[in-house]
Amino acid sequence: MLRVFRFSESYPELVDFDRDAVISNFGLGRQTSIILDTNVMVEIEGAYRTKQPHAKLTEAGIIHFARMVAKNAKYGVFISPAAAYQELPPARRAPVEVAFNRFVKYYLPKLGYDPDKVTSPFTGESVDLEKFAELPRDRQELRSVSYACLLAINVVHRIRHLAPTDKFNCYIDYCAEVLNLISLKEVFVARYVFSSEVGINELVRKRKVSLVNNFVKIKKSVAKNLPADEVIKRISLNGANDIALITTLDAVNNTRSQFIWEDAKHDAWLATSDEKLYEFCRACPSLSEQDGGKRLARGMELHAEITGTDYWKESAEILGRKLDERRGEIDQEMEMGPVLQAAFQIEALLADGTAEKFFENRLWRDRR
After folding, report:
1. How far apart are CA 105 and CA 113, in angstroms?
2. Contact 30, 262 (CB under 8 A)
3. Tell me: the pLDDT tens digits for 279-293?
4. Given its phi and psi angles, is residue 98 left (phi above 0), alpha (psi -120 to 50 degrees) or beta?
């Protein structure tokens, strides 16, 4: 099911796309920009590989989406495939672009399709998703923090005999001592992933389930065809791509009520058919930076109403102490080289089966 929504810490819940929001933006001189997730673009390409593309696009909800955009186009609604193109492997970009251009030309001709645009023919190839090591250096750097953090989260999460607090403490130590940064977006993910089921309430349950499904699980049909280390790498890169996407939209919509790009004021929405991503965004409406420490407070929610475990209080204290220790390093310019090196190191440890031992025993301290 294709969904279009906006998520922001300015709102207590995820906001579904509607005509009122579009008209309000138009009245305020804002452009309503709908960012297409990669899965939508792939579905469009897949439809044009069949004998009945219209039926396939209708089944996916994309025709309904196109009609909605066309109906509101006069109020400044635009769709953007740029983020999706960035995530696609190079061998897939040309055929996906061809399919998208066909789709726009037929269903959304008033959106400014360029008849002189140079396109590439369908190649017909089927390629595996990209691996982090195969990305260009600039894309590696853009994903490196989230990728390294999610690799670490996945490894630590699988150390079964460690208690939740010990897992969280191990992860925070690694971030501070090896990555030399503590990214609160991934800390938010780690804190709920590592948590126990003891005393859990509905809010925490929804967050934990959505975060586990999106950042530490993969479809069984996919996992059975991959070695264990490749499963973790695939999960972590997919998660890093998701965080990059939602952080961009979240920053646009939370920095201020409108985002100015060149001469246009934007209100950004996301279109995706990824149900796990949607559920994650619904359970965790925002991961963005906020003034006045609001984001830090959000990341350190005590959940004092949960009894039977000290995990929530202790994990907040662990994070608070570590952040206090690092106050002098906050304004330092961050180098991506060590983070990239750390990500590749975890990949190597996963390949030789020693990753869990490396984290559990904090062996990075022996190698410094």
Report:
1. 6
2. no
3. 888 777 655 444 434
4. alpha
